[in-house]
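Reopening this one. Same input as before:
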Amino acid sequence: MNFTKLISGAFALVFIVILYSIIYYALKIMYRDVKGGGRKRSSAVNSKKAHGLEVMATDNSETLKIGSVIPVRGTLSIGRKGDNSICLNDQFVSSHHAKLYVRNNDFYLEDLDSTNGSYVNGGQITGRVKLKVEDEVKLGSTIFKVIG
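Same output, byte for byte:
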């Protein structure tokens, strides 16, 4: 009988320790989120620098017009398939050709192993490349200019 009380007491003690550990870590995470909330606002203030693409040339006249501007705030996918953010109806563009994204206020283009490649300022890129204002991006027959 003493043995069962000892085991049940040990289980109760282990349960209490686990419960308090979970509560402690949950409160620690919530405190970090609340304390770090101000940082998110300050990074939003720093992200005033806008990134975007201006369409310079295209054969895809039904969806993109020359001179139109595409703002980039997060991640945009570019390709021929309909599930992309920017859909280019061009036989030289892969179904998932490239992606554009902003990280820490820097603007990147990443080629997604496309068949015909992605070009920045006339040179073919592999992987990801950091873009600067006035860079020229060519995907298939569409040419974009980086604005910011």
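So the earlier flakiness isn't reproducible anymore. For the record, The chain has two domains: 1-36, 52-147.
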